[in-house]
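dude i think i finally got it to work??
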Amino acid sequence: MRYNHRFFAQQRDFVPIPSPILLAVDRAHPSWRPILVQGLEAMALADPVYLPRLAQDSFLPTEARLFAAFRQPLDRVQYVLVGEGPYPRVESATGVSFMDGAVGSLWSDEKGGGLSKPVNKATSLRNFIKMLLVADGHLSEDSTNGAALAEVASRLRGGDAAQTLAHLEDKLHANGFLLLNASLVFRDSVAPAKDAKAWRPFFDTVMQALAERQPTLILWGKIAEQLNKLESVQALPQIVAEHPYNVSFIANKEMQALFGPMGLLKR
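look at this
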């Protein structure tokens, strides 16, 4: 059933939301749709021109996937992982944090290869997977490149390990993750931090909706950390780490301790 955006907006008498933005709400799980509309209305009240200008601009993700992360039902959320923003490539930006749409297989099928070329192109995803391999005991923190990674890939490729990014995403969802970005859009013409600031009223609404569940927030990078300016974010348990595009992320003990027991790279 499609959510009646027009009726909702009339009843609440809020600033109108551009129809292309509202239509994207239909890609979310039904439990989230009224909350997402409330979040958009909060954005419109804070800055009436932002959403109309966004609707007229080119941005990523495309194909009405703006709220794709919210297919995780509200009552299943145990963790909220917040990154910076969508990948700056059309084929990669999916609306789900760190899930690169250009990635199929995790492992290279070339002789002596490690991770697949699409994974290596997605720096943040690559370092996240390397962190998981360290946490699972497949790699040493001191040796995560070259021959060591190729040796691991030769054992895991085609075996009992996850073979595709879709499998990894499914495992994250099964563990209760809501995979968001601080800015839900990427634009060549606008700094990610500026777009992220405009989305804060939306995030405030989302965090208030999650307050009773008390999920753990995992904030990756400086832009995500800025969400701590919101009282609704301050009230939730959280783990703050460097963004995974930093090589140091691979050896982050808190991340290893959090994700290791989940077995995300196992079938």
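The domain at 5-88+170-246 is CATH 3.40.470.10 (Uracil-DNA Glycosylase, subunit E).
im so relieved honestly
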